[in-house]
Specification:
It contains twelve helices and twelve strands. The structure holds N~2~-sulfamoyl-L-arginine and zinc ion. The site of zinc ion has 4 residues, from loops. N~2~-sulfamoyl-L-arginine (0X9) binds next to helix 11 and strand 12.
């Protein structure tokens, strides 16, 4: 009985203030999406670090932010003070998401039963469905083994698939693929599962590499994003602020820790209390460290923006070792990816062309483990649907990434 009371209160308040029946998007009721213009500079990133808003898009021409209901007034005032103007793109995010679901041909409830043999393309898989697929895949492929490298705060497994080369004598170099570190970037795990399927079938003839894939690095955040807050980014561990859970796992790695990140718990880019404070990043760090001498490439899958980002992310003034090679191989990826469905992926520097942010997988893998090729790949789209990407993109996006990756790995093998 006790646990029902707060919900009844929230529902009653919501219904009174917004005149809407409660749905599973209640936590986003009254949140707005704004397009910023004027002398924007680093203002959105500063306000994100302070915990006032959430930067959704930060490309050269477009700055889109989500402003929570409770910080609308303060954000409006601060932006005005700083000479930044805004246009409201979405008045009420909950209504926006509800309308989108009503319009989509199949509702989330109408999903076909899942038989675990292939990754789904008709909808984004639940974490349980992903587990079922991974278990089936490892049972059916003698080259694949499935290991839990650790547990999340809510006790979910962080799964890693290890695919051995066709000929075990080739087992010298390895590739690491991580996806789903940011909860709302659902397409990244969907693409990672598709890549696994292709690798097991060895459709790419890149069998000389050991490949390690962690398709769901933040399972608690993912499930929370599916069930409670579609735009959730962080993990779900408790912080010292009872009102704000979660650490940005892509700010929690120990390389120039703290730059472009926040020490405020409620911020979307909260870096945690110390490097590797979180079980998910600890698990990834330990598993990667075990194979560090083998690693030739680390690829971290994210969304959105269609960009292949190369290091550094912590500073735009320092040039990472092997930058020329990173760009050259990146272009091989982009050309091959484009040949699939004509989608352009830009090869750009993380800090210089996106924004300065430290504590991410790519910088740590290069800076600490010394891996030559490390990238963050921002998947589809370029901002039309952003994180709320329709499932119809799962297959084409996976196909183009697989094509790009195959070409890139074939190049790296030659070295
Ligand atoms: O900010 C991030 O963590 C990544 N972008 S996202 O929109 N998916 O959140 C980019 C990370 C790029 N790498 C580094 N800054 N090192
Ligand atoms: Zn991300």
């Amino acid at each position: 009985m006790v646990s029902v009371v707060p919900f009844v209160i929230v529902a009653a308040v919501t219904f009174t203030v917004f005149g809407k029946e409660p749905t599973r998007h209640e936590l986003l009721r009254g949140h707005q999406i704004w397009q910023l213009s004027g002398d924007v500079g680093a203002v959105p990133l500063e306000l994100m670090q302070e915990g006032l808003l959430d930067v959704l898009e930060h490309s050269g021409t477009s700055k889109k932010v989500r402003v929570p209901f409770q910080s609308l007034e303060e954000t409006r005032r601060l932006l005005q003070e700083k000479g930044v103007s805004h246009e409201i793109l979405v008045e009420d995010l909950a209504t926006f998401l509800e309308d989108g679901e009503r319009l989509s041909k199949r509702s989330a409830m109408e999903r076909d039963e899942y038989n675990c043999s292939e990754p789904r393309h008709d909808s984004y898989m639940t974490f349980e469905e992903m587990e079922c697929f991974l278990k089936r895949l490892s049972e059916n492929s003698p080259r694949a083994s499935l290991t839990s490298i650790g547990k999340s705060c809510e006790n979910r497994d962080i799964w890693m698939v290890h695919l051995r080369p066709d000929d075990p004598r080739d087992s010298e170099e390895a590739v690491w693929i991580e996806a789903g570190i940011h909860a709302r970037e659902w397409i990244s795990s969907a693409v990672a599962l598709h890549i696994l399927k292709e690798l097991v079938q060895d459709n790419g003839n890149i069998g000389q590499f050991d490949v390690y894939v962690v398709p769901m690095a933040n399972p608690d955040g993912y499930e929370y994003s599916r069930n409670s807050d579609r735009l959730w980014r962080k993990n779900r561990c408790k912080t010292s602020n009872a009102n704000c859970a979660g650490v940005d796992l892509n700010r929690n790695w120990n390389f120039h820790y703290g730059v472009g990140a926040s020490d405020i718990e409620c911020s979307e880019v909260f870096r945690g209390t110390e490097p590797f404070s979180e079980p998910e990043t600890k698990a990834l760090r330990d598993a990667m460290t075990k194979v560090k001498d083998q690693l030739k490439m680390v690829l971290s899958l994210h969304s959105y923006g269609q960009q292949l980002l190369y290091p550094w992310g912590f500073s735009k003034h320092e040039i990472a070792p092997n930058t020329e090679d990173l760009i050259a191989k990146g272009k091989v990826f982009a050309d091959a990816a484009k040949s699939a469905h004509n989608k352009a992926y830009k090869v750009v520097n993380s800090a210089g062309d996106l924004y300065t942010a430290s504590g991410a997988t790519d910088d740590w893998a290069k800076g600490v483990l010394g891996v030559k090729y490390t990238y963050t790949l921002e998947l589809r789209d370029e901002g039309e649907f952003g994180f709320i990407l329709e499932p119809s993109h799962i297959l084409p996006c996976s196909e183009e990434v697989w094509k790009g990756l195959e070409a890139l790995l074939k190049e790296i093998i030659k070295e």
